[in-house]
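Okay, any thoughts on this one?
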Amino acid sequence: MITGYLFQELDKDKLLQIYKIIAENQDWKSALDQILIFSRNFFIFDNVAVYLSETSSGHIDVVYARATGRGRSKEADVSWGETVGNRVITEKKIIREEVPVNDQVDRLNAPFILGIPLFISKAQAGALVFIRFGGPAYEAGSQEFAEFLAVQVTTLVRQKSLDDLEIELEKQRTYTALQGDFISTISHEVRNPLGFIRGYTTTLLREDTEWDKKTQKDFLEIIDRETSNLNELIDDLLDSSRLQSGNMRFNFQMLRIDSIIRDEVSRAVLNNPGQIFRVEIADSLPAINGDARRIAQVIDNLIDNSRKYAPGAVITIKAYPEDNRLIMEYSDEGPGIDAKYLPLVFSRFFRVPESSHGVRGSGLGLSICKQIIESHNGEMSLFSTKGQGISFRITLPRDANLAMKTKGGN
């Protein structure tokens, strides 16, 4: 153990082994796990924790904690050095706290704490904290080795920060690309109905031509349909914006989801008589606490999605209770989605490239569905195999109190 000699006297092979662990691990926590397990062969500690703080907010989070010695059996009830970690970050210096120990004192109530500052960046500071329950005291060699480990932890956390930044930048690049596609799509989707409306209105207003009643009716029906398409697009944009900002209001009340499903199916069949539905609803389906209009909107969006991308495919809707939840499964027997696109399906503005040609839409429908379900404290997931249709699973809590906690609930 490092208990009385200088850090410089430590076998160089041990230091090289630590550097090797860092070089061979891409995950910082895995690397730190291995370093601490290896170091404990010659450096005494029971608990270890890494605290990080954003300098702008001063809020401190524990990002790593490990119990390896006496405190392992009582992790929740023993010291993790948070107070020392806070002081280390605030005072930017090494802090040692040691207490007198005798035979009458429970070692778990006598932590010897050593906190080493981590200088991550201008915006972030941290502390590496070691705890020895009941001692021994931290000798010069032990403290020097702890400082060496702090440098390695700083390197690992910096690498983690760079990795997180790279992931965030990639998300932003994807989001920016989707926004560009969205602007192009919306421009097209807005111009189309406006073009029809203006064209047929101008035609009807021509004074040099007489139109018979049937032709006038046909023109007016086209204008009405395109106006509805434009209204639907605007509603989607507004709903998506309100959900994204958390400003959408929900009218929560006890409702029967089986009635909503049957109403939406009846409306879809009325508008598209050739559509085949299979509806399987459990007899004992319980009432849930939710917004009937928004739940209906989810079902309507799913049916509309199938109508656009799987025209004529059989649609199956199931609803049944499971434990304290209500499950709704929606599926169609359409072309499905390639696996590479599945992680993006619920993203705002996303549309599957191969399926979007000639199909009108904003890429907001499924994103709106997922956000509505999550606003009910529920979950929505997607399963699909190319050429074998698509399935959605929606889980909603049965407990009225759960939904009422939702942001925007009344």
About this structure: The first strand starts at residue 47 and ends at 54. The domain at 7-165 is CATH 3.30.450.40 (Beta-Lactamase).
